[in-house]
Amino acid sequence: MRVPRVLRALSGLRVRLVVAFTLVAVVATVTTGALTFREARTGVLQQSQDTVIEDFRHRVNTLVPNYRFPPDESGLQSFANDVSRGGRSQNWRVLAAYRDASATSRPGDSFRELSQAMRESVRTRRATVFQRVTRDGHSSLVVGMPVTFAGQYGTQRRASGLEVYLTVPQREEQGYVDALVAAIERATVPALALAVLMALLAARGVLRPVRALRRATRSIAEGRLDTRLAVQGSDELADLSRTFNETAAALEGSVAELRRMEAGARRFAADVSHELRTPLAAMSAVTDVLDEDAAGLDDDTAMAVRLISEETTKLAGLVDDLMEVSRFDAGAAALHLDDIDLAESVRRTLASRGWLDTVRTSLPEPGALRGRVDPRRLDVIVANLVANALRHGAPPVRLRLRAEDDPHAGRRAVVEVSDGGDGIPDGVLPHVFDRFYKSDSARTRSEGSGLGLAITTENVRLHGGTVRAANHPDGGAVFTVVLPLRPDGAKAPVRRAAKEEQA
């Protein structure tokens, strides 16, 4: 299943670098903003709180000596009013309490911000106590302090019983905090934009050598082994480029050596095969004469003559196969196409080798299946497959020729050769088309050269077809050849030898 291009793009290195930089920027910006906000908010509130408490203390200490003690109800009211006038913002709300009596600077003020716990703390600790309270979405600072007999605030003095409480709204401080939040939010957007820009620049710098490495790798895969990368800098990517160049140089040297050795082996096989043909022709002529006179010889001599004749024939076939393989390797094999009746060509192949009575055939009617193929190479393909089935399989050997239509490849001819033997072992099946391959159990000492199926494969490839081997579910091996049928007048594709195609 192919991954859609969008998903591949989203999972690319560029996107991951941009996302990583953006996440780092977001985390850094949010963390810095949060810490800055916390410190700034604490500073603003602390400064406001200290100012209010200091002013409150000073106001109370200044006014207390001016009132009679113990105070009566009217005195508490006057004291609360006088203290409330000391606020810089003129928004002080004051509660003065003495034992069970109390008075507020604003008539009917319930002083809901003041908690019972805070009153208990002022009474018991004899210390200035403050608390921030939020009600109905508004924040206020509540301060409470006791009045001692010493006239000057001190925690070790005996309390007079007079308690003074102050409530100050913190609208101005809240405005400062809101402005700080807005400033942090405004600074976040440019920070993120800068982070994305830096991520794109960093991704570009990182991906440039990566793209060059990818192009160089593809070039190496396409066979251009002299491809090298320009090494810049001394970082990890530069080390990777140097390693790639070293690897490419070593690979180029190894491939050049292998090609040299392969070319030498091909020349050696071709030269040996060519040189053997002349003495083999003479040996074949001698064995023909000896075969004619074998009837007049004694049994041992006649047996030796027949053995020499058979081995000479095998050697001649092996030399012919080697010559054919050398032509494939040299790229000298060519197709000579002709428009023929495929069924008739198959019949002639079987008849010329005396296999008509041995092989069960299923062929189309004469003239029903025609195509442009190389008649000689088609003969080699069919002969090698049938000979392989007769030699290594078991009766019955069947040959079936049919046509099929492929929506992409067009009309094709299919040749199937099967036998009734035990099939091909699983360990042998992947190697049946390899040159000189013989399975230990079936072909250790057989008549074949080990090149028949390899030559068949090369001839099929020259036609642009395919060949495969398999085991039939009911037993026996099945070889299937598929050849494209070009209409009359169509040109065959130009094909090189197998070795060059693989390179």
UniProtKB/TrEMBL annotation:
<dbReference type="InterPro" id="IPR003660">
    <property type="entry name" value="HAMP_dom"/>
</dbReference>
<keyword id="KW-0067">ATP-binding</keyword>
<dbReference type="Pfam" id="PF02518">
    <property type="entry name" value="HATPase_c"/>
</dbReference>
<dbReference type="InterPro" id="IPR003661">
    <property type="entry name" value="HisK_dim/P_dom"/>
</dbReference>
<keyword id="KW-0472">Membrane</keyword>
<dbReference type="InterPro" id="IPR036097">
    <property type="entry name" value="HisK_dim/P_sf"/>
</dbReference>
<dbReference type="InterPro" id="IPR036890">
    <property type="entry name" value="HATPase_C_sf"/>
</dbReference>
<keyword id="KW-0808">Transferase</keyword>
<protein>
    <recommendedName>
        <fullName>histidine kinase</fullName>
        <ecNumber>2.7.13.3</ecNumber>
    </recommendedName>
</protein>
<dbReference type="Pfam" id="PF00512">
    <property type="entry name" value="HisKA"/>
</dbReference>
<feature type="domain" description="Histidine kinase">
    <location>
        <begin position="271"/>
        <end position="487"/>
    </location>
</feature>
<dbReference type="GO" id="GO:0005524">
    <property type="term" value="F:ATP binding"/>
</dbReference>
<feature type="domain" description="HAMP">
    <location>
        <begin position="204"/>
        <end position="256"/>
    </location>
</feature>
<keyword id="KW-0418">Kinase</keyword>
<keyword id="KW-0902">Two-component regulatory system</keyword>
<dbReference type="GO" id="GO:0000155">
    <property type="term" value="F:phosphorelay sensor kinase activity"/>
</dbReference>
<keyword id="KW-0547">Nucleotide-binding</keyword>
<keyword id="KW-0597">Phosphoprotein</keyword>
<dbReference type="InterPro" id="IPR003594">
    <property type="entry name" value="HATPase_dom"/>
</dbReference>
<dbReference type="Pfam" id="PF00672">
    <property type="entry name" value="HAMP"/>
</dbReference>
<dbReference type="InterPro" id="IPR005467">
    <property type="entry name" value="His_kinase_dom"/>
</dbReference>
<keyword id="KW-1003">Cell membrane</keyword>
<dbReference type="InterPro" id="IPR004358">
    <property type="entry name" value="Sig_transdc_His_kin-like_C"/>
</dbReference>
<dbReference type="InterPro" id="IPR050428">
    <property type="entry name" value="TCS_sensor_his_kinase"/>
</dbReference>
<keyword id="KW-0812">Transmembrane</keyword>
<dbReference type="GO" id="GO:0005886">
    <property type="term" value="C:plasma membrane"/>
</dbReference>
<keyword id="KW-1133">Transmembrane helix</keyword>
